[in-house]
């Protein structure tokens, strides 16, 4: 039964950006760097070194040479780990998984992974998304104005907005969650808002949460994503509180 009293909503289960919101792509950088230098470059210019999730992801437009990807050995225990997110995908050349190298490059000819010395210098593949985490502490309304001002044109068209989040695709959930984890505040504003008696996503996305309170407490009318949540989810909060926020660039 829904009430008009204070209400804190926590939705368990995976949370993902709506299918039309988060876009990922691979960027091939031809500059030859060590693995750690390549990782730093990707993190400063894009999102991170590329994670391969499935065979089709390997279409990275490489010429006939190898390039760094995000797979590497951890300092302790020597387990293989991706620089960004996790993936079970492996396509080793024969016996390469037991080789002495601690960083992985991928061949353009046969799409095979090879363990290499991390100090070797190769071109590399970065992963990029259209999410923009803003580490400024703003109210929800200020965050909305900030996102919409990013890349806005003289004609008034909006290139960016506060992100919408929905139950859905796991890959998109990964990108949203990874961005939220980098925030300086414990929660991050997203585009959920209660206005004129209804809940809505400010970017016009379909709202897929039927259990939102029809009469929310006045101090719980804006949506935020928490950094630390066991199963994923978002909470309703006071719109006047100050938090980091997550924008996205429209397609």
From TrEMBL:
SUPFAM superfamilies in alphabetical order: C-type lectin-like
PROSITE patterns on file: C_TYPE_LECTIN_2
UniProt keyword list: Signal
SMART domains: CLECT
Pfam families: Lectin_C
Record-annotated C-type lectin domain positions: 26-127, 133-248
PANTHER family, per the entry: C-TYPE LECTIN DOMAIN FAMILY 20 MEMBER A-RELATED, C-TYPE MANNOSE RECEPTOR 2-RELATED
Record-given protein name: C-type lectin domain-containing protein
